[in-house]
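Please check the following.

. . .
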Amino acid sequence: MAQTKRKRRTKHRGTAAGTIETRGRTGRPPSAEERKKQTRTEARERRLNTPPTWKRSAAIAAFASVALFLLFSVLGRGKQPVESAAIFAAFAFVLYTPGGYYMELAMYRRRQKRKQQAQVRK
């Protein structure tokens, strides 16, 4: 006699809030590509959830000011392109360090507030 009741293909688990969670893959270990994607996602979350530091802002500003120095010293056509490029790069470093820090701080606080609101809604 043929089976009349269809078997469930995937098992689900309900929570008290009424959401249904799937168990995920239980039959085989994740492939290298799946593991890489998971570690990439975890690394991104870790990076976005760390508060900004002055040291990181200074490093980013230093990189940007060196790039500006190289750009202006190569493209400079005046009598003193290297000196003026160095002055401009130093000025950019002084501006970029606090500007970058406070911009990162604002974005970090916004992400944290959004994450907290999402947890309250659940």
User: Anything to note?
Assistant: Strands lie at 12-14, 20-22. The mean pLDDT is 84. Residues 37 and 43 are 10 Å apart (CA to CA). Residues 54-122 form one domain.
